Amino acid sequence: MSRSQNTALVFVAVALLFLFWKNSAAADSHPLTGSPALTLASGMASNLEVSIRHAGEHKLVLGVTNTGDKPLTLITWNSPLDPIALKLGLVELIPSGSSDPVQTNTIQVRRKMPPESDSLVTIKPGEKEENVLELGEPVVPLDKLKGKMSVRCTGSWMGVWNADEFKTEQLESVGSTEETQFGDFKAELESVEL
Q1: Less crowded by CB within 10 Å, the N or C end of the chain?
Q2: For the range 113-117, what are the long-range contacts, defined as Cβ-Cβ under 8 Å and sequence gap of 24 or more?
Q3: How far apart are CA 177 and CA 170, in angstroms?
Q4: 93 CB burial (10 A radius; 0-12, 13-18, 19+)
Q5: pLDDT, tens digit, for every residue of 100-129?
Q6: What is the pTM of this model?
Q7: Fold classified for 32-193
Q8: Does residue 175 come out as left (phi exceeding 0), alpha (psi in the -120 to 50 range) or beta?
Q9: How far is CA 84 from CA 91, 122, 162, in A?
């Protein structure tokens, strides 16, 4: 190989390494902030306990309980309290004896930042907020809702704050202040007849 070919190969290798590094850094970042994604909720966000309960035929209720000692304000977007949680794919229905969830028709949403006040909820210590989900067309094909199923709800909090210290101006810079908490949530309900 000539010297110019060696130089070209080194240049290509460095360029590929840079692209790989850039893409892996982007994959590990929080969707709003570019900061590293958390695998577990920490701080105040760890005081939000997610639950699922069956509330009759083709109906589920997702709940969020504040287990801490301070009132918490959170963004409902992409959370169990989001009115379109089912359409966003936060909930999986897994037939008994299968590891694959029922195929649901999900949507992708672009929301105008910053969140409006109707996208916020404050939960006092020991209290629970709930979101009722109606299963069925067009999101979940009714013919797939037969027999026993497990229900799983997973995702990431977009923002949690100490309600006593929260100011609406903080929504202008969601994720870029130390007061904002993030983290993942997960809940599972096993063997229900939907």
Answers
A1: N
A2: 113/174, 114/171, 114/172, 114/174, 115/75, 115/77, 115/159, 115/171, 115/174, 117/168
A3: 8
A4: buried
A5: 999 989 999 999 888 888 999 999 999 999
A6: 0.73
A7: Immunoglobulin-like (2.60.40)
A8: left
A9: 10, 19, 25
pLDDT for residue 190: 85
- Residue type, position 135, single letter: L
Q: What pLDDT is attached to residue 147?
A: 84
CB 101 within 8 A of CB 135: no
Q: How many residues does the chain have?
A: 194
75: left (phi over 0), alpha (psi -120 to 50) or beta: beta
Distance separating alpha carbons of residues 72 and 79, to the nearest angstrom? 14
Q: Look up tokens 């070209």; give the residue.
A: 8
11-69 pLDDT, tens digit per residue, is: 444 443 433 433 333 333 333 333 233 334 557 889 999 999 999 888 999 999 999 99
